[in-house]
């Protein structure tokens, strides 16, 4: 399928699909006239890339983990096949996510306590 059809089927603008190609996340073939040609499996791959981006991973991280993904929600590498750099990259991202969760939880608790203090009893 050509880039316009992939864009329609995934809801991802063609401009972003070209960017994913530049970032080595997508690898379309080229037809004789130079047009990009994507297999049907590219629809699921683009959706997976979008999900990973939405979860906060950078294109660099996605490029590192994409070879180990078998489909949305499925990660099945043999533990020894994941390079230490990839594991460290993911651990750093997990640590940043946890720090944000901790910060949000503290703010929620402070705001809840403040709201309880300023609300009249019975409300």
Protein architecture, described:
- With 123 residues, this protein is mainly alpha-helical.
- It has two domains: 1-77, Multidrug-efflux Transporter Regulator, Chain: A, Domain 2, CATH 1.10.1660.10; 83-123.
- It has five helices and four strands.
- The strands form two sheets. A two-stranded antiparallel ribbon has the order 1-2. It has a two-stranded antiparallel sheet with strand order 3-4.
- It is elongated and about 75 Å long.
Brief overview, please?
The protein is mainly alpha-helical. The protein is built from five helices and four strands; from the N terminus they run ααββααββα. The radius of gyration is 21 Å and the shape is elongated.
Q: Uncertain segments of ≥5 residues (pLDDT<50)?
A: none
CATH architecture of the largest domain: Orthogonal Bundle
The CATH class label of the largest domain is Mainly Alpha
Largest sheet: 2 strands, antiparallel
Count of domain modules:
2
Helix-strand layout with pairing:
Layout: H1 3-10, H2 14-22, E1 29-30, E2 36-37, H3 42-54, H4 59-65, E3 69-71, E4 74-75, H5 84-118
Antiparallel strand pairs: 1-2, 3-4
Protein traits:
4 strands, 2 domains, 123 residues, two-stranded antiparallel ribbon, Multidrug-efflux Transporter Regulator, Chain: A, Domain 2, mainly alpha, two-stranded antiparallel sheet
């Amino acid at each position: 399928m050509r880039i316009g059809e992939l864009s329609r089927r995934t809801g991802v603008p063609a401009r972003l699909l070209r960017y994913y190609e530049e970032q080595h996340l997508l690898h379309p073939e080229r037809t004789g006239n130079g047009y990009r040609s994507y297999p049907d499996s590219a629809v699921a791959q683009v959706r997976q890339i979008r999900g990973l981006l939405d979860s906060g991973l950078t294109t660099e991280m996605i490029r590192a983990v994409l070879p180990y993904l078998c489909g949305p929600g499925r990660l099945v590498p043999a533990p020894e096949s994941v390079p230490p750099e990839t594991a460290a990259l993911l651990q750093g991202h997990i640590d940043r996510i946890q720090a944000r969760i901790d910060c949000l939880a503290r703010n929620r608790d402070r705001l809840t306590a403040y709201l309880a203090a300023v609300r009249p009893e019975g409300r």
